[in-house]
Amino acid sequence: MKVPDLPLIDVFGRGGALKSSWYGDCLPSRDFPMLVDLYQQGRLDLDAFVSEEIGIGDVEAAFEKMHHGDVLRSVVVL
Fold first, then answer.
1. What confidence tens digit (pLDDT) does each residue in 40-60 have?
2. DSSP conformation class of 41
3. How far apart are alpha carbons 62 and 76 in whole angstroms?
4. Taking the model in full, what pTM does it have?
5. Residue 50: CB partners within 8 Å, gap ≥ 6?
């Protein structure tokens, strides 16, 4: 995979900066309550991200499906 060129003079020449993030730098204590509120208000459709509900015995198969792009998210129901 070829990494695209980044015009550093354009970024830094205008006062820009590079910052790394891991999963968007989520701060659970701040962000989770906000996401729960949005979901409860019907403004965040988390259900659309669930492709299937599975049992605990189906976890390995679910990872295979996700790896192959067959599902977006599998939720384990105990």
1. 999 999 998 899 999 999 999
2. T
3. 10
4. 0.50
5. 72, 73, 74, 75
